[in-house]
Design brief:
This protein has 529 residues and is of the alpha/beta class. It is 32% helix and 17% strand. The chain has helices spanning 21-30, 64-77, 84-92, 94-104, 137-147, 218-225, 256-259, 285-298, 313-319, 321-329, 385-406, 434-444, 451-466, 475-496, and strands at residues 8-17, 36-39, 56-57, 129-130, 155-158, 161-168, 174-181, 187-197, 230-231, 236-239, 242-243, 251-252, 263-266, 304-307, 339-340, 344-348, 351-353, 365-367, 372-373, 424-426, 449-450, 469-471, 505-506. Bound molecules: flavin-adenine dinucleotide. Flavin-adenine dinucleotide binds at residues 17-23, 39-42, 46-49, 51-55, 137-138, 162-163, 198-200, 210-211, 214-215, 218-219, 252, 347, 369-371, 384-387, 390.
Length: 529
């Protein structure tokens, strides 16, 4: 057994966990108020923000009609589960978020007259997506935000550390966190006046995903262990157009490609989507992903592609450089040939329940960005509304904390009892691994669900949790424990959540006959029902 060093102890006015767009936008708002410590699993490339391609949705023009139509599109895509008042706040505060980005220097793409270039994505009734560097929007925004924060005298950055436990005062108020380095060698205990989780979603808990590997939601599980309410975990958004090449990590082909006229076709070049939705390629994401799943299921041997051969090589190089050159390196010239696609887990509509000020159900704890459930995305997020949410909520949580601070509230405690590492979960050799769990979720909680699959998935997760022992946990074991905990909560939610939008159930897998079209790809352990 290795000897643990006692944790280093720090005190900060504001603790932010997670360094994506939500974390940095919050930091920008809090630095004028006091010291900010941002702890993250890695640099900006560790979160999803860096990879966002399509852009940022705005009610461009910002007049009455622009706002109303953005609100209406968001609610329509959300399949009846959006909170309309919250959606309105999101859209009405977009102008402020956009103005901040421009003032900080985000180089949004413009035409030769200096006018913003707007694109359209699925389920948007008009072009309203702005972008930067063609399809490098996320990386250019998060880099700009980070540059405006790093180097500030009140800013401290700790990485690579993972949140291990939230620390509470006797009153129950969350007052910091205990962090474990990724190699398990170092522990840091941070006391804070306010603790903000900006740790993103958990789509990397699924075997096939567009998210970077750090996005397995272990901070969400830590928040749940501390008593924070989670909600809507059943609502995973699966993105339909993800490059599908054997042995290669799934790579997103942005929805803006369909917005600019891309077609989804089979190997004979036939478009398939109008059989599923009158808007064809511009139908909401959950509809398109499900259509691809059904095609694969019902037409064994079918191959599905995204075709943008109507766009010239020159245009693709400039407008979609990331996508174009990635595909070219993989041997596909998008200006001449279609790219094979298959859906992948992409975004979490649910998470830690918050109000529109970022408050969780625990005093002292806030959540912002994809980790939070603000109910603005309903049962299916409208494309490019996620960066908007991270920015708007980063502003709102900043304002909430500023007003509490002005009242003399939110001071870090002098000391906290709970800052010592305590024993955690350990696993027997041969027990369910994180990789096994990711395959399990892909198969049992994937694009299309059945009650049988959900019951089987839950049973396996419960058995894995029951086989855990208590002892000196390693980073890998702690991560697996959190992943299992979150999966348990997800399966629980799947049983009761409304079956709309992304939470799509069928009576029985047997209603299609045969097995899931995904099982062959995932190296499946699928059982028949
Ligand atoms: C490929 C791709 C393309 C996308 N394109 C778009 C788009 O065009 N438009 C749009 O609106 N949305 C898009 N999205 C979604 C959007 O990018 C994300 O929802 C958004 O960026 C989330 O931002 P965030 O700051 O909440 O979290 P993230 O950017 O995911 O950052 C999470 C941070 O938390 C850290 N972290 C995670 N767990 C822990 C832990 N336990 N302890 C400490 N730190 C932790 C990570 O290291 C990271 O720094 C895309 C997503 C992907 C994956």
């Amino acid at each position: 057994m290795t000897q643990r060093n006692p944790p280093r102890s720090l005190s900060t006015d504001f603790l932010i966990v997670g360094g994506g767009i939500a974390g940095y936008q919050t930091a920008i708002n809090l630095l004028p108020l006091g010291s900010v410590t941002l702890v993250s699993r890695g640099s900006i490339v560790s979160g999803s923000s860096y990879y966002a391609q399509g852009g940022l949705a705005l009610p461009w023009g910002f007049g009455y009609d622009a706002v109303e139509s953005h609100v209406a599109d968001t609610i329509r895509a959300g399949a009846g589960l959006c909170d309309p008042a919250n959606v309105r706040v999101l859209v009405e505060e977009a102008e402020e978020a956009y103005a901040t980005l421009v003032s900080l220097g985000v180089p949004f793409d413009r035409d030769s007259a200096g006018e913003l270039l707007l694109t359209r994505e699925a389920a948007h009734s008009r072009p309203r997506i702005i972008h930067a560097g063609g399809d490098k929007t996320g990386s250019l925004i998060v880099k700009t935000l980070a540059q405006n924060v790093h180097g500030h005298e009140r800013f401290t950055f700790l990485t690579p550390f993972r949140l291990h436990r939230l620390l509470k005062e006797d009153s129950g108020r969350v007052a910091g966190g205990l962090f474990m380095s990724e190699d398990g060698q170092e522990w840091v205990s941070v006391r804070s006046g306010a603790t903000i989780l900006a740790t993103g979603g958990f789509s990397a808990l699924f075997a096939r995903t567009t998210n970077p590997p750090s996005q397995v939601g272990d901070a969400t599980a830590v928040a749940a262990a501390a008593g924070a309410q989670l909600e809507r975990l059943a609502f995973t958004q699966f993105h339909p157009t993800v490059l599908d090449l054997p042995g290669q990590v799934p790579f997103l082909l942005t929805e803006a490609l369909r917005g600019e006229g891309g077609h989804i076709v089979d190997q004979k070049g036939h478009r398939i989507l109008f059989r599923y939705h009158p808007d064809g390629e511009l139908a909401p994401r959950d509809v398109v992903s499900r259509a691809l799943w059904l095609e694969a299921r019902n037409r064994p041997g079918v191959k599905l592609f995204l075709s943008v051969v109507h766009l010239s090589e020159n245009y693709l190089r400039q407008r979609f450089p990331q996508v174009y050159f990635h595909c070219l390196e993989a041997g596909i010239d998008l200006s001449r040939e279609p790219a094979p696609i298959r859906p992948a887990a992409h975004f979490q509509m649910g998470g830690i329940r918050t109000d529109m000020d970022g408050r969780t159900t625990l005093s002292g704890l806030y959540a912002v960005g994809e980790v939070a459930s603000t109910r603005v995305h309903g049962a299916n997020r409208l494309a490019s509304n996620s960066l908007l949410e991270a920015l708007v909520m980063g502003n709102r949580v900043g304002r909430t904390i500023a007003s509490l601070r002005a009242e003399g509230d939110l001071l870090p405690p002098e000391a906290l009892e709970e800052g010592e590492p305590s024993p955690g979960a350990t696993h027997e050799p041969g027990a369910l691994s994180l990789e096994d769990l990711r395959i399990l979720l892909w198969e049992k909680a994937g694009i299309v669900r059945t009650e049988e699959q959900v019951a089987m998935g839950e049973e396996e997760v419960l058995a894995a949790l029951a086989s855990e022992k208590t002892g000196e946990t390693t980073p890998k074991e702690a991560l697996l424990h959190n992943a299992l905990t979150l999966s348990r909560l997800l399966f629980e939610d799947l049983k009761t959540a409304p079956r709309v939008g992304a939470n799509y159930f069928v009576e029985s897998r047997n209603s299609w006959g045969g097995s899931s079209p995904d099982s062959a790809h995932a190296g499946s352990k699928e059982k028949t029902v």
